[in-house]
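Milestone 3.1: sequence recovery, worked example.
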């Protein structure tokens, strides 16, 4: 007796929905039987491995893939052991190496008997590329429904599909495990009632895909599991098609990032120290030094180029030491004229000078018990150098216009971007003060000497500006990262931070590209920047470069400065240095 037409139609539709969801999964999947013969090979597997369905299906695993992989598959078939996070290196038919991360699970029939194994994998080096063609599938699936069910349930990432009414159509076992919601409960529910994410209200990745028709990759959101646990997940989405190519809903894969976040936090602990970021040898040595310096009460002199993070180091010392519960105050000695700086440091009595209408405590008083950070200390006048020396020697001072001696318990951390020893030799800085400040010397490396830290710093700034701007920038394109790595960074970490902020202003979302970077960082200016970098061995070519550029723009200094990616005052100084004015 034939099934009623309506029942047949419903069953056919379920088959189409199910097949579509299986083949929309972005990971490569293939299936072998108990004898090791490949019986299924998805389109994603074809893309990743460079082998066609016709070339692979029906052949034994050993005839196609490396022995290491086939042995792992045989182990799963024989022992029913699930193998996860396997790192396997294979070669494409043309000999190109591919690094894969995969999982192997036993394939069982409806009676629970192991009839083969399901292998899921992804290209570690090209994970972004994995999903670029998610919506271009046109494969005619030939597997039975039970086999497809086994494949979906063997995938370690959560997978679910929705119809146009946002009701869940399918929900695999990994989705059950991550969310704590069974497939029986999930199917038919509105997806927001399962995931309970803040993104469901305004920034749903699946809604964006359905609205724009564009797939999304690795969007990080937070969901709430059935027991109330908050779980970070990475979501990728695509349109869901039926066999006729019509959109019938959406498919999403999601991965639990809890462990990844834990590892990232552990790595961040190894590669950072109180807002200082870096894994390079100079930075690791700096972290070790700072831990010891923070525990002491010695005066510290920090030397380094502008933008290397001298104040961050000073704060790290203070907030990791015994004075952390007391004030940390800083003053830029180059920003104020001598009378104002003297009053700022030591305070003044009422009537000490015109405008002194009341008594004012200085930084030494207000920082009592804590730390006083003297930035650009080399710019202090000889008079103030003498007064600072007295404070260091006697731990006391008088306010401007006062006679009362005030005791102070302050740790001094000084910083400069100048060579203080050279200043001593030139007679612009007191030798005795230099030695009193230079009890513990810290020299910060320029960014050009720790380029391996640029990637960490870029990731840190992207997270920072994503939080500030409420954007979802995923990262930096290869070309942009190459430009960042090739640049000389005369302004060090501060210049890098400003460059990323500039790129954020230019970029609406997605990836930061070369076009979003400041103009002087782009590849066409790379050689110019290298020649103009004062530390570059090509410095002797600077005059010739300036002459050539000025000749090309017929002496127009504004155009020359723009071409060189420098300001007009900088161009003027360089022209004066080389006698080109």
């Amino acid at each position: 007796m034939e099934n009623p037409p309506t029942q047949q139609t419903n069953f056919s539709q379920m088959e189409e929905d199910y097949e579509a969801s299986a083949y929309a999964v972005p990971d490569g999947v293939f299936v072998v039987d108990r004898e090791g013969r490949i019986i299924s090979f998805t389109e994603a597997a074809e893309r990743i491995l460079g082998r066609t369905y016709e070339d692979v299906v029906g052949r034994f695993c050993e005839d196609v893939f490396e022995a290491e992989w086939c042995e792992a598959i045989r182990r799963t078939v024989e022992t029913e052991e699930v193998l996860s996070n396997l790192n396997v290196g294979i070669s494409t038919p043309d000999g190109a190496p591919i690094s894969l991360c995969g999982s192997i699970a036993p394939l069982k029939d409806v009676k629970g008997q192991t009839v083969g194994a399901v292998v899921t994998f992804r290209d570690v080096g090209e994970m972004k590329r994995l999903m670029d063609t998610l919506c271009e599938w046109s494969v005619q699936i030939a597997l039975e429904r039970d086999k497809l069910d086994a494949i979906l349930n063997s995938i370690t990432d959560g997978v679910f599909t929705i119809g146009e009414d946002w009701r869940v159509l399918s929900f695999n076992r990994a989705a059950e495990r991550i969310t704590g919601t069974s497939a029986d409960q999930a199917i038919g529910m509105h997806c927001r009632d399962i995931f309970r994410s803040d993104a469901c209200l305004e920034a749903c990745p699946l809604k964006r895909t359905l609205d724009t028709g564009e797939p999304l990759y690795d969007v990080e959101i937070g969901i709430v599991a059935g027991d109330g646990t908050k779980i970070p997940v990475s979501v990728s989405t695509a349109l869901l098609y039926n066999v006729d190519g019509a959109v019938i809903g959406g498919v999403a894969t999601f991965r639990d990032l809890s462990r990844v976040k834990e590892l990232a936090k552990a790595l961040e602990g190894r590669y950072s120290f109180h807002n200082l970021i870096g894994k390079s040898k100079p930075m690791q040595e700096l972290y070790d030094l700072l831990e010891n310096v923070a525990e002491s009460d010695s005066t510290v002199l920090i030397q380094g180029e502008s933008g290397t993070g001298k104040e961050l180091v000073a704060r790290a010392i203070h907030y990791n030491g015994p004075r952390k519960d007391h004030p940390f105050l800083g003053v830029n000695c180059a920003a104020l004229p001598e009378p104002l700086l003297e009053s700022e440091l030591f305070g003044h009595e009422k009537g000490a000078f015109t405008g002194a209408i009341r008594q004012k405590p200085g930084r030494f008083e207000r920082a009592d018990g804590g730390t006083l950070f003297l930035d650009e200390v080399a710019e202090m006048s000889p008079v103030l150098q003498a007064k600072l020396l007295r404070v260091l020697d006697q731990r006391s001072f008088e306010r401007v216009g006062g006679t009362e001696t005030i005791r102070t318990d302050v740790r001094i951390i000084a910083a400069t971007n100048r060579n203080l020893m050279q200043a001593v030799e030139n007679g612009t800085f007191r030798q005795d003060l230099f030695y009193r400040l230079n009890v513990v010397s810290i020299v910060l490396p320029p960014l050009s000497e720790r380029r391996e830290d640029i990637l960490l710093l870029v990731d840190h700034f992207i997270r920072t500006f994503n939080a500030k701007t409420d954007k979802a920038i995923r990262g930096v394109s290869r070309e942009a990262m190459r430009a960042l790595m090739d640049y000389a960074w005369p302004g060090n970490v501060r210049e890098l931070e400003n460059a990323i902020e500039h790129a954020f202003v230019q970029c609406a979302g997605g990836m930061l590209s070369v076009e979003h970077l400041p103009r002087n960082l782009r590849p066409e200016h790379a050689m110019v920047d290298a020649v103009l970098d004062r530390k570059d061995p090509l410095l002797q070519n600077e005059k010739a470069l300036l002459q050539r550029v000025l000749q090309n723009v017929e002496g127009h200094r504004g155009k020359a400065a723009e071409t060189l990616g420098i300001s007009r005052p900088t161009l003027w100084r360089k022209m004066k240095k080389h006698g080109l004015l």
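Residues 91 and 97 are 4 Å apart (CA to CA). Residues 5-23 form the longest helix (19 residues).
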